[in-house]
Amino acid sequence: MSLLQLIWAEIKAVLADKTIVITVFGGVLFYSILYPLPYLNQVPTEQQVVVIDHDHSSLSRQLIRDANASPKIEVIAQLGSIDEAKRWIETGRAHGLLVIPMNFRRDLLLGKGVTLSYGGDASYFLIYSAVVEGLVSAGLDIGKDVQRLGLLAKGENATAVNQSLNVVKLNSIPAFNPSLGYTPYVVPGLFLLILHQTLLIGTGILGASQWRKQGYWLQVSPFKLICGRMAAFMLIYGLLSSYYVGYCYYWYDVSLQATLAQVWLLMLPFLLATSAAGIAFSSLFSRRDLPTQVLLLISMPILFVSGFVWPTALIPEPVVAISQIVPAVPAIMAMLELNQMGAPWQSIMPQWLQLWAMVVVYSGLAYWGVTRRLKPAA
């Protein structure tokens, strides 16, 4: 059997296996739509908030109007007690609450400290941060308004008052995520992780289902089988990677800084290392259901140690060191630096060389594992 015949036989074996087709093609397409879907609006706005006003003054009503004017929140009701507000939050009718204390206006005019109480459902981090940000902004604005009135009443110049209340002006320009949204932040790394996991599962299922059977894989040497299998999966994942790194990045407005040649130069060792690791991984199993179960268990740890959803500085150093044997970890960090942050190629050279080293190491492990598996069947 020639190498081309072997590659074609591998592709047909993949397409004939419903489990692999659902995992590889279905999984990639499914997650490209499902995961970003809740975050298509990029940032949470107009989150429902209830107010408990114990002051009932003109200033407290102005605070409520200012809060409602914020794009982050929407005041939907004024309630009589905190217990009632908690019930609204527990039932999902509201996401946060604002408590205005008694004597709010009097204490502010007297220059005394006033405490505004905010609360909400912190299980949804993005929603909770939007609620708090909107309420804090409204509270700070009302405080400045009172200070401005007090200074003007003392005869201060209006221009000088405005300058004294706005000593520092921030000019915030987002560099790598212009929309400040969740989707451009998480999609680049997550999509590479999905490619990594589905490729490992696909090669794992294919290998684990063949070791105890007769077939074309017994007609070639272990080295030729590994080359043919890697080539077949490279062809398949070349198309899937083009869909992710090409179409999906543009569709979800992900920042693109690298050239096409640079992206593919990085993707090449990543896909080779992952396919070789998948073949080596498949030699550990003779049941086709086990690779999926094991890889699903380690998918979340890989996500966190990759460093794009959780700082690696907050992860124990031994865990970070062990994670470097996973091809997705250096590939994700290199892709983020190169394609999203516009770093030069020299800055990702260590990760690129690390991926090529993984190609060599995992290819050797794959050869050893396949040789051991095929010997009893020969």
Describe this structure in words.
The protein has 378 residues and is of the alpha/beta class. The protein has helices spanning 3-16, 18-34, 58-69, 82-90, 104-109, 125-153, 158-165, 182-208, 222-251, 260-282, 290-305, 317-323, 328-340, 349-377; strands spanning 47-53, 73-79, 96-100, 117-120. The protein has 14 helices and 4 strands.
Which terms summarize this structure?
378 residues; alpha/beta; 4-stranded mixed beta sheet; 14 helices; elongated
Write the layout of secondary structure elements.
Layout: H1 3-16, H2 18-34, E1 47-53, H3 58-69, E2 73-79, H4 82-90, E3 96-100, H5 104-109, E4 117-120, H6 125-153, H7 158-165, H8 182-208, H9 222-251, H10 260-282, H11 290-305, H12 317-323, H13 328-340, H14 349-377
Parallel strand pairs: 1-2, 1-3
Antiparallel strand pairs: 3-4
Helix pairs in contact: 1-9, 2-8, 3-6, 6-7, 8-9, 8-10, 8-11, 8-13, 9-10, 10-13, 10-14, 13-14
